[in-house]
Amino acid sequence: MPRNLKLVLAYDGSDFRGWQVQPGLPTVQGALAEALRRACGCAELPQGSGRTDAGVHALAQVASCVIDSPIPLANLVTALNDVLPPAVRVLEISEVPPGFHARASARAKTYRYRIFRGPICPPSLARYVYHHPYPLDEARMAALAGLVAGEHDFTSFAAVDPERGREDESPSNVRTIFSSAWERRGDELVYTVRGSGFLHHMVRNLVGTFLLAGKGTLDERDLRRILELKDRSAAGPTAPACGLYLVSVEY
Q1: Position 102 in a domain
Q2: Which domain holds residue 79?
């Protein structure tokens, strides 16, 4: 009897070309699909909660798929981790109602962006943080973070890419941000944002814009204007992928 499964995954995105399967390229979705085929004969492509970009990491990405195998879920976790590359781990699997879909059923996501502020970035962190040792007004960045909270059209922070304009495939660029905050954690400046969904590159473009504020080149009025313009060229550059993590998905 078919079973609809919810899988929670963690991965180091450094060596993958993102989540979404691409012919001839290493992707997380492709690796998971192959592991499912080998572990339980599943031919269905697993669906993720969203399409993380090349180099982006996940602490708890969610995927869903339907399998016909009666294999116990604990055994399936072990079987998948035995054949997945070391950079991808299945943390847990649960059986869910037939209507559950990792992307369509998601209600909120949390992302985190890590900036290493020390003068020398340890090699062990280089793939997992954006190293920016230059002067920044961190207090200014923290003060402006809350301005993007609420419901807005985030076109100014979306990648200009007609085929990848929406990380969660919603037909609109309007999203609701529930919380947006910068904080210091030792040598790292960390941005955490929780929202109803995110556009392609949206978090990285927000980070790039906040960095401009930290450098003193834009203020509160400028940030409000960027939101109102709905023009990608008005916002800051896209921050590097290596510092970004999908932290959690809520249903």
Answers
A1: no
A2: 3-96
Instruction: Please tell me the total count of domains within the chain.
Output: 2
The two three-digit tokens of residue 182, written as one number: 């910068």
CATH number of residue 30's parent domain: 3.30.70.580
Question: Are 143 and 236 contained in the same domain?
Answer: yes
Quick check: is 53 catalytic? yes
Q: Any idea which residue has 């954690």 for tokens?
A: 185
Nearest Cα to Cα of residue 59 among 88, 16, 95: 88
Assess whether 85 and 132 both reside in one domain. Answer: no
List all residues 6 or more positions away from 201 whose beta carbon is below 8 Å from its beta carbon.
53, 157, 158, 159, 238
CA separation for the pair 250, 60 (Å, rounded):
10
129-167 per-position pLDDT tens digit = 999 999 999 999 999 999 999 999 999 999 986 555 456
Please tell me which residue in 12, 53, 153, 222 is annotated as part of the active site: 53
Find where tokens 């947006």 sit.
Answer: 180
Q: Which two tokens stand for residue 30?
A: 């492709």
Does residue 34 lie within any of the structural domains?
yes
Answer whether 0.90 is exceeded by the pTM: yes
30 Cβ neighbours under 8 A, 6+ residues apart: 21, 22
> Taking Cα atoms as reference points, which of 128, 158, 146, 138 lies closest to residue 245?
128
136 and 200 share one domain:
yes
